[in-house]
Amino acid sequence: MKKKSKLQIISQANVSFDSAGVVTLLLKDHRAMRELMEKIDSPRATQRAIFAAYAKLEKLVHSHMKAEEESLLHRLKDHKLFEDKAKEGIEEHRVHELIMAHVHRVKDPERRAIHMHIFCEVLEHHLKEEETKLFPRVQKNIALTTRKKIGKIFAKKRSSGPKP
Ligand SMILES: [Fe+2]
Ligand SMILES: [Fe+2]
Predict the structure, then answer these.
(1) Is it the case that residue 9 has pLDDT exceeding 60?
(2) How far does residue 48's CA lie from ligand 2's centre (Å)?
(3) How many domains does the chain have?
(4) Which residue of 55, 59, 76, 143 could cross-link 82, Cys pair, CB 3.0 to 4.6 Å?
C-alpha cells in the first residue's frame, strides 16, 4: 500500500467547507478528482461509466482551477518564495484546458476514452506537484489566519461549481 503523505491525511479531516485553511479545501477537491479518476481508469469500467465520470471530472477541474488561481496562485505568483511553483501551476492549468478541449474533438469513442486516460495522467502529475512542492511551502510560510482568509475566498469562488 502507498504511504500517505501528511497533506493527504489533512485532506481527510472532516472540516466544514468555509472555515478551513485553503490547503485543506484544495485537498478535498483533489480527493474528489482522484475518486473520479479511479472510475475512469478502472479496468472494469464500461465506456459509458468512463464518459460519465469524465464529464463530472471536467466540471470539477474547471471550477477548481479557476478558484485555485483566483484565490491563491495569483496571490503567490509575484512572491519570490512561491513564484516558480505558482507560475508553473497556472501554466499547467492552461495545458489541462487544451487537453480537455481536445478530448471533445476526438470523434471515435474508443480513442476519446484513451485521451481521457491521458488527461488523468497529466492531472495526477499536477496534483502531486502541488501537494508535494507548493502546498507544503504554503503551510510552512503563510499563517493559518491568512490561509483561512484565502480559504474563504476559495470556497466562495468554488460555490457555483460541483461540491467535492
Ligand atoms: Fe489543485
Ligand atoms: Fe492546480
Answers:
(1) no
(2) 27
(3) 1
(4) 76
